[in-house]
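PROTEIN DATA CARD
Card holder: G-protein coupled receptors family 3 profile domain-containing protein
Chain length: 707
Origin: Cricetulus griseus
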Amino acid sequence: VSYGSSLPSLSDKIQFPSFLRTVTSDLTSCRAVTQLIIHFRWSWVIILAHDDDFGQQASSLASRELSPAGVCIEDTLHVPSHDSSGKIELIVQKMQKCTARVVLVFLSNANFQIILHSLLGIHPSGQVWVSMDTMHMALALSIPGISQVLHGTFGLLYHSSRAIGFPEFLADLRPSQTPEDMFIKKFWESTFDCTWPHQSGRVREGVQMCSGNESLKNKLYPFQEVSNIDAAYTAVYSIAQALQDVIDRGHQDGKGIDSQHFHSWQLLHAVRNVHFKTPDGIKIMFDANGDVVLKFDIYQGHKTPEGIFNLVPVGMVDPQVYVGKKMMVHLKEDLQVSCLNAEMTFVPSSVCSESCLPGSSQVPRVGAPQCCFDCSRCPKGQFADKKDMKRCLQCPKEQYSSHSRDRCLPRTEIFLAFEEPLGFMLALVALFLSGLAVLVLGVFVKHRDTPVVRANNRTLSYLLLMSLSLCSLCALLFLGRPSVTTCLLRQTTFAVVFTVAISSVLAKTLTVVLAFRATKPGGKIRLWLSPRASTSVVLIASFMQLVLCGVWLAISPPFPDRDMVSEPQHIVIQCQEGSGTLFLCVLGYLGILAGGTFFVAFLARGLPDVFNETKFLTFSTLLFCSVWTAFLPLYHSARGKSTVAVEIFSILASTAGLLGGIFIPKCYIILLKPERNTPAWLRQGHQALRIGSMRCSIEDGSTQPMT
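Structure generated from the sequence above:
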């Protein structure tokens, strides 16, 4: 039963079936110290290992344990077994260039002290040393000024049984009590720095003589072997307990077994199955590999304000208890409190890249380890609610990402409502224009027998005014929350009513043009000047639009839809047009009709007329076409409820253009210039136009009379 050997190969029970030990394997210690790295969330470390089988095996095992936990090794430095100042200096230079603040140590005591000596003169950058053995730090304390290097260091120590009475035994120990002990005098000289009288050889000057009455109480022991007394005590106690079990079992079986006479295999079996508690309450048992089941105490190096550097127990690692895939690491609750009395008040971090806060995700750096990354803010519609997320998560469709991108917020439904300022103003304008058209219609009906009203087919004027009034009112269908009914009516009503209005303007324009070409009484052209012909133009044009709208509603009608894309923070309730092709056909037909009307009016703009009818028709159709030409790019670039506002504005603007361009000048004459609205003034106007036309024809050399 060994109390000092920790070679991993000795755990092989096929090769070493009768070997047991009261210290843990180096592999178990290595695994325990890596759990300390993982617990403190150090993700960027340096491994400093011995250049031998143990160092190679320990560093390889540490890399395998740390890599799945997201810990990256910045560099693995192997210290040579023999003293090579050049290689040691090179290792120290590499450590200076490294950015990791945590150094994981797998070194012998001698090599560790060599490295520490080399670091003393270069003002180290605050590395935290993590060792699988506190003996490194305990021995290093004898180096002057070493506390600045070991400040904040962590180490592990076996949580083994304490040898009861051993400190008292040392305090009362005297060389005269055990004269047969050949080592005690040498131990006494090394401990008290003295020499024995009558010692052979020359006595050094200034060295006091050993009296043998010196006390070992509160004395530091210079020999490493003294530290193994706990493990040795556990080994001896295990043998004693196993021997007692063998004797007790023999008595139970009726076989008297003498403690001096038994077979070795009997004791081996008893030691393997030993399970007891020591007087100080420590459970002792061996696992299947013959290794004692021990916990590790975590020690941290602290320097008090008085300048005293000591090792303070701050927690425990239990290799037998796992939480998930990690060993249980338990730190004392008063760890931070105990640190308040020392210079170190926190556990430093060691990372290649600072943590990405919620709202951002990690973006790996090209050619760098997985621990080195940049932080990228989550795009719109995505979020990251935890630190160091590998990628941002998509918000549900009903939600949007907050400004900080760390959570999703519910999206509110919006539409162009009557209650909001823009909707309210558009509704007022629509009602105003509709009322104005009705008012003009009333004026025309009241003065229906006057020349201004009778000129150019008063029936078409009535029809145009009624359609313009309905055009203004159809804008109200675009306001409010879209429903199945409003979605079916808004575009179709708009298209049909505007077709009636434009076809009425077209009929008026054709009437003016044909009136100046009808030179022969009873000719074919005069047949087109009848009210029935004008009405037929309106009916045919409107019927074609009705057919298109009917096909549209029958095949793929508009329907209410929820737009999740236009506005990230809102859900836009709108009408989806259904068949986009048929919708474009309806608008295209209306556009062709408006373009044809403008073309005819533009050609007739120079024809003489008492009331400037052709000029007003040309101007009004120009306004109409300009508004809807500007509407197309605005409609396709707008998003959300702005598209509805653009369409309503275009409807109202074009309605106002037709109403103002055609009828406001006539109302001006009817209401403010009644003297011009008489047959006498009309005859004078026609005579003046006739003389002017003949004069123009003579100047142009034309002999054809003008109408």
